[in-house]
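Re: that backbone. Tokens:
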């Protein structure tokens, strides 16, 4: 059974800080007051009875009161009640026919949030015409074959050699099997492969996520949809944060400070610039594996996990001693942990917004403010899964990853035209910037016990 709206939006903090979910009416990212009014912003037309839940798209209000729990994109729709969701709606590639079947219940005057918005809408059309939102199946077959070849290499190194260093070389290659599978899972769970057939995409995602990478693909998707729709957003009143930007071990932005209230948090945050690298490297993988299955109830993910641990145990059984088993997994997990930096560096030192600021800001502009690209040569795109072009991926989450590099020059042009900073740094620069940022944030942190 899929998690409920409340579970998904409150899980990140409630489970890690140990707090109870907010008791102040928060259920779907809107307060009791907002929900009761049907709409949040004064300039919007209220619903007839004042109690319906309306979402605004392209200047029309749609009543989603009975649709929230059925929405195929999950509970995030509830976070846009009473708001103009035009840009996030289109960015997610909703088929325009979806709204043709729904009768609007009112209209509102669309407010220009930023002059660049029109240009980004135009860019999307240009990219559509260029075919950047279409799937190259041959490309995916090749990617899958690479994963399979790497996987066979691991087996070969572990089963055909008795030298410990060949086994550990196998562990190193295993990290790449996990990493590359993770990227393919990412594409599937964004419906970037079959696109109009979500069931097939989810099955592919579960195979590469749970069976190969070892994490629950649906758990990841639940969090990732919020991460994309509401990147770096903090809702202090409801104790909610973009779930993929929240860790109990550090506070990377002052907007998160009110959520940290214990002496233990204080200690963690004061030393966060020192613990950052070892925690991400050595603990990262264990954390996502356990976190992803802790509350997982979907049987597909458990079947995938059973497959994953069956092949992992068979593989590990070829190693001669428990010591080698331990070191083998540690090497694989730590090398894979290094890959986690990429995603963290793309957001940690960037802008964060409180939820009300977020709903007032331009969705496109904030995607750029809250993202950083990593500069690399084209031949390293495979290593970063194309997500070194994080700005482009966040602006257009359904764009096929092989085209992200091609989309970048036009995105840069729009940013330059509107004087928006397009942040792109090398991996090392981004790491140094993030460490300095963590140190500064830690210095400013003071404990505010509640
Ligand atoms: C009037 C409001 C909305 C309606 C009627 C609606 C309807 C739908 C439908 C029918 C789908 C499945 C088909 C498809 O992907 O084209 C879908 C998917 C989705 N929706 Fe919505 N939606 C609405 C608003 C939103 C909003 C505000 C968000 C905010 C982020 C959102 C996020 C998503 C996501 C992430 C998916 C999954 C896309 C994918 O990866 O395939 N939707 N929605």
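Recovered sequence:
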């Amino acid at each position: 059974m899929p998690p409920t709206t409340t579970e998904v939006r409150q899980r990140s903090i409630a489970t890690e800080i140990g707090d109870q979910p907010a008791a102040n009416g928060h259920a779907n990212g809107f307060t009791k007051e907002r929900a009761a009014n049907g709409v949040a912003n004064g300039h919007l037309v209220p619903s007839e009875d004042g109690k319906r839940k309306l979402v605004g798209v392209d200047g029309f209000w749609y009543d989603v009161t009975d649709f929230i729990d059925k929405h195929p994109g999950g509970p995030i729709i509830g976070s846009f009640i009473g708001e103009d969701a035009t840009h996030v709606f289109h960015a997610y590639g909703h088929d325009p026919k979806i709204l043709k079947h729904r009768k609007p219940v009112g209209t509102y005057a669309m407010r220009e949030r930023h002059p660049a918005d029109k240009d980004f809408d135009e860019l999307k059309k240009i990219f559509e015409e260029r075919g950047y939102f279409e799937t190259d199946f041959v490309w995916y077959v090749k990617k899958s074959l690479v994963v399979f070849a790497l996987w066979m290499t691991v087996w070969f190194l572990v089963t055909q050699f008795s030298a410990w260093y060949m086994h550990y070389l196998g562990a190193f290659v295993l990290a790449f099997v996990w990493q590359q599978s993770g990227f393919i899972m990412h594409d599937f769970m964004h419906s970037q492969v079959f696109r109009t057939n979500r069931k097939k995409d989810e099955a592919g995602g579960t195979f590469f996520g749970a069976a190969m990478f070892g994490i629950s693909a649906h758990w990841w998707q639940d969090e990732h949809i919020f991460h994309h729709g509401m990147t770096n957003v903090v809702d202090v009143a409801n104790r909610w944060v973009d779930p993929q930007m929240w860790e109990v071990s550090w506070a990377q932005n002052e907007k998160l400070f009110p959520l940290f209230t214990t002496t233990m948090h204080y200690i963690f945050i004061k030393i966060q610039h020192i613990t950052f690298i070892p925690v991400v490297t050595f603990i990262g993988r264990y954390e996502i594996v356990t976190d992803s299955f802790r509350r997982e109830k979907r049987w597909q993910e458990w079947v995938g996990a059973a497959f994953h641990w069956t092949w992992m145990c068979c593989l590990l059984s070829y190693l001669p001693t428990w010591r080698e088993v331990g070191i083998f997994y540690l090497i694989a997990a730590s090398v894979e942990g290094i890959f986690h930096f990429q995603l963290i560096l793309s957001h940690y030192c960037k802008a964060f917004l409180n939820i009300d600021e977020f709903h007032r800001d331009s969705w496109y502009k904030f995607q750029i403010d809250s993202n950083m690209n990593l500069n690399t040569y084209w031949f390293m795109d495979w290593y970063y899964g194309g997500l070194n072009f994080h700005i482009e991926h966040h602006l257009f989450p359904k764009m096929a990853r092989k085209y992200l590099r091609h989309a970048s020059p036009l995105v840069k042009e729009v940013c330059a035209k509107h004087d928006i900073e397009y942040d792109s740094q090398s991996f090392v620069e981004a790491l140094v910037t993030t460490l300095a940022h963590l140190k500064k944030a830690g210095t400013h942190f003071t404990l505010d016990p509640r």
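Residues 31-111 form a domain with the Flavocytochrome B2; Chain A, domain 1 fold (CATH 3.10.120.10). Residues 282 and 334 are 5 Å apart (CA to CA).
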